[in-house]
Structures are given as structure tokens and as C-alpha cells.
Amino acid sequence: MPAFDLDTELAAERHHLSESRAALGRMRGRAEALFSTGDKVAGDAYTAEQLGRHMARRVKELADDPTTPLFFGRLDIEESAYHVGRRHVTDDAGEPMVLDWRAPLSRSFYRASVRDPQGVSVRRRFGFVRGELTSFEDEHLDRGEELGTKSRILTAEIERPRVGPMRDIVATIQPEQDELVRAELTDSICVQGAPGTGKTAVGLHRAAFLLYLHRERLRRSGVLIVGPNTAFLSYISAVLPALGEVEVHQSTVDELIGRVPVRAVDSPAAALVKNDARMAEVLRRTLWSRLTKPTDPIMVSDGSYRWRIDAEPLRRIVDEARREGLPYAVGRERVKARVVGLLQRQSEYRTGNSPTDGWLRRMSKVAPVTEFLEKAWPAVTPESLVAEVLTDPFVAGDLLTAEEQEAIRWGKPPRTVKASKFTAADLVLIDEAAGLLEREASFGHVVIDEAQDLSPMQARAIARRSEHGSITVLGDLAQGTAPWAAPEWPEILNHLGKPQTRVVPLTVGFRVPAAVVELANRLLPALGVNVPEAVSLRRDGDLVIVPVAPPSDLDTETLAEITAALTHEGSVAVIAADAAVERLRGHLTAAGIEHATPDDVDSEARVTVVPATVVKGLEYDHVVVHEPADIVAAEPKGLNRLYVVLTRAVSRLSVVHAKPLPAPLA
Length: 666
Ligand SMILES: Nc1ncnc2c1ncn2[C@@H]1O[C@H](COP(=O)(O)OP(=O)(O)OP(=O)(O)O)[C@@H](O)[C@H]1O
What we know:
By secondary structure, the protein is α/β, with parallel strands linked by helices. Helices cover about 40% and strands about 15% of the residues. The strands form 5 sheets. Strands 3-4-2-1-5-6 form a 6-stranded mixed β-sheet, covered by helices on one side. Strands 9-8-12-13-7-14 form a 6-stranded parallel β-sheet. It has a 6-stranded parallel β-sheet with strand order 17-22-21-18-20-19. Helix 20 crosses helix 21. It comes from Paractinoplanes atraurantiacus.
């Protein structure tokens, strides 16, 4: 194609971009106008509020980010050209100018190939610099041209320096990822992928895709993203809003189940027992063992009348409610309602009148009824049940060994349940107890990231919240660092209540350069899990190992590596065992190098000091790892932790060590 043609094409595409931006502006203008007049056109306050909320969301959804392109691709199908972008844009007549990447037609942008062109003659990818269209790249599928991962634009996107929070990948989703993103809503999937294979990206884009296809249904039930910690959640928090999705709930497991404040810390042994699935059975047995067989009749004085229910019908009521398999608190309410129902029948028979609601309420509260209930089906709170088990774990009977019971037993039981000092692991027990008492509302879809670290009890907490929905489980068994991390997926999927979930591998790495992957892969055989190795798409990148010997010292060399890293573009992280973090921060401050904490994703500082225990899921252009031996020694699954730490680098990795490197790396 002659050069001037390329220029003309580029100019035409730029024109389409500015026209589309203007059209989006007008769409937003119309939404804003409706938003501001909503209360005048709506008939009543409720409708006005609903309409207002809907329009406010619509205005947010239509926000244009001038730094990201409104479209990133084009499909030529027969005589028409379709631009594919982050959201639908229509002209004033309602004709599409940009197709949402989730629309059925857009699927071909990600999946069409020479073998299966899906009617596409040309696929065009656009290159952008800060929202300005600068180039494009065509694949004439009709002429057998296909670039795949050799696309220059894909390579540039993967290799661009990282700054700030995570970005969406809509422009470059790969076919194997797209298949997962577009899986049916009813389909639960588990993605096992090596570091940087795009698991988090796939999960977030799947949430956006499902919201697009099933908006009303999922708006009612909700979509939940569960991540390992708040640093990770802030890192991913911008992705869904950038895709126009502003209503997804993002939470850590602890936030999800935090009914009471954490005021104590467990020993590792106690935390391990409390997170074990057997505790669910301990709680269940303890709870139901509270029921007692009624032996006395109920006698109620009601003005000049006296009502009586014999022990036998009371026993029947309790047995029946028990057999119905309801949650405990619901069963208790049912027993109460049936007892009051029997009183009502007697009253109707004797007086010939139907009792009033007031009478029914009074009967449900009279002492003989409440005393009967307290004995036969006592009121329980989640906290009181957990307190009972921790005060006397002997109730666990043969479910726990004597040592395990001793590990969780309260040394000095609190005087009241309210005064109890609960630990983080107790929260998961309290949540389990709450689930025995009443059903949790279920989300329509739950995405669980870093799921390899879920304890059985945490997985059960999520299962209760996804009982009627589907789940996307993302993780890497090799990155399991929790003491209970399972070596295989079926176990976790079982506790998540979805044992049939298919496990799909992702193996192509988009983050870590080949040289760094090669180093990290040396740890794999020592991690005791059977997972496929990562294959890196990135041939660039740099790895340096810096041994330190006197007279120099570890911290000085680490500082020198950070200073050298700052001469390159992009973010820099120094990752160290948690105990060394404060000291390193002090050195950086003394050296006048501005530095941030990992949850401050908006910080201007280029250097972040990250404790090894919170680095999961994050990435930085240049990573300086400080003393791997200390990272390994700091916890029982230290080698897995080191594997996570070594796989955070996008471009360059420096490993600074004064002690010998851990065996598999040496
Ligand atoms: N198709 C793609 N195109 C461009 N970049 C991609 C693509 N897939 C993934 N990436 C990028 O690769 C990096 C790693 O992705 P992501 O964090 O989703 O991986 P992960 O598998 O969750 O990693 P980890 O196991 O370390 O948590 C991110 O910067 C992401 O944007």
C-alpha cells in the first residue's frame, strides 16, 4: 500500500475516533439532562430515586477516559467495518459507531483466525499513545495472514512500563483467555495458571462480560470479587470502572465475614484447627445438641380462658421442624408459629372468633411459650455458639484430637459472650455458625482470586454466598502460602460447594520475562504441587543476582540496586521479608528516595517497599528482592512465598543476597 494511502487511512480512523468521542459526549449529555430532570418527570419519590440512581450510574458508565482509546480494533465483515471498543457508542440516529467488546459480533475480534475467519476479511488493531491514535496493524485473514502473538501492538502492550493500578486488557485478550471470559453464566470454572498468565485479568473481564449479558439479573443478585488483601484490591480496583462497570462488590474474605472486630491473635496451631473443615461439623453438632425433647405441657392463661398443649403434640412439632432440615433460627421460628397456631385453634373453637394479630403477637411472647422454646429449641447467636465451643472444645467429641481441642480452648473464658475477644480465625467460625442459623443471600456470580490460599472454612464461607450462583476460581497451587493451602484443586472446589467445576490451565505468561521465569521455575520441583510450568511470551528483560560480601552490606547494595533501577522507566519495588521492611523504608527516607506502601496505588513515588507477605497478585517493572533466605525462613511455606516474590517483575529482577541462596536457586 503506498504511504499516502496509509496516511489517508490513519486520518480517516482518527476522524472516526473524534466523531465517536463527540457522540459519546452527546450520549452522556443526554443522560445528565435526564438525571437532572428525573425528579420532575417521575411520578413519585420512589420512582424518582430509582430513576436518579439509574441515570447516575448511566452517566458514570458513559464517562470517557481521554487517556485510553475509545476503540482499539476494527473488523471488516463483507462490505461493513465495525470498530470494537470499551463500550457501545451510537450516533444521533442510533446507528452504532463503536461496538462494545462484549457484543456477540466483537467476539470475532478475539477469536477469528485464518482457519476459522468467521466472516472477517480484515482484522485491524490500533496503536495509541495517551489516547491518540498513532498506528494500526492489519491482518488479512482472507489472504491467510495471521499475526497471533507476533502482533507488534500486542507486544508493545505487554512490554509497556507499568505505572499505577492494573489496567484492562480488552484490546489484547488472547483466544484461550477469551474462551474463559465468555463462558456461560451457569458455568463455574477454575483457572490454574502460572504467575502472570492473566488469571486476574480473565476474572475481572469475565465479571464485566457477565454483567453485560445478564445485567438485570446480576444487578439484583450482585457480583462479588474476592481478593487476598486490600493492597491487591486497590491494585485491581480501577479495571472494572474503566470498562463501565461501577457496581461490583470487591472484598477480602475477612471483610466479607467480619461480623465482629478482631481483638485477639491465635497461635498458628489454633488457627490451623479453626480453619479445618471438621470445625463445621463440630459447630453443627454442638448447635443441634441443644434441642431437648419436650416433657411438660404448656399452659397459658388468657383472660378467663386457659389453654393447654400437651407434651406429645409439642414433641411432634419439634421433631417435624427438625426433620424439615431448616436453618436453626428458621426452625425455631417455625416451632413458635406452630405452637401459637395450636393456641389459636383452641381459642377459635372456644370463642368462635378469629384472634387479632395483637393476640397472636402476645401469645408468641407469653412466658409459658418462651420458656418452652428456651428449653426445647434455645435461642443461639453465632457468637454464643462459637464461645461455647471455645470454652469447652470437648463438645467436639472424637472429631478433634485432645491436642487439637487444647489448642483452641480458651485459657480463661470471658464472663459474657459480649466480652469475648475473637481472633481472625474465630470470624470464620462465627460466619459458619451464622450460616447454620440462617441462610446467606447468594451472589449471582463470585470471582475468587488467589483461591489456592483459601482454608476449607473460608471456602465454605464463600460457598454460602454463591449457593445459587456460579463461580470463577483463579489461582496457582504453586503460589499457595497459607498453612492450609491445598496441593490439589478438587479439595478446594469441594469446599466451595462446586465439586463439578472444570479446571482449565493457562500457561502463556504475559508478565515475567523468560530469564526470570527460568529462575523461578527452578523452585517448582521443591513446592510439592503438580502444575504446568509457565512459558513466557517475553524475550526481553533482565536478571541480575548480586552476592554481597564484606566490606559491603546487604542494605547498601539493595539501595544501590534501587538507585540503578530508577534510571529506567517504570515502577520499582523492593520486596523483603516483613521484618526488614521498616528498616529498608528508613534507609530510603535517609537517602531522600520517595517511597510508597503497596496499597497506595495513586502515589507519585516510583519506589514501593513491599513486605513479602502482601506481594501476591501485584507486579512492578523492576523488582529488587532483598535476602531470599530470610523470606524463605520467615514462614513454613517460605519457598512458595519466594516463588511468588520472584515472579512479580515485568522487566527486570535483581536478587540481592548476603546469605547463601536457597538450595534450588544456588
Ligand atoms: N492478553 C493480554 N494482553 C496484554 N496483557 C496481558 C494479557 N493477559 C495478561 N496481561 C497482563 O499480564 C500481567 C499479569 O496478568 P495477571 O495479573 O492477570 O496475571 P495472574 O495470572 O493473575 O498473575 P499472578 O498469578 O501473579 O497473580 C498484567 O499486567 C496483565 O495486564
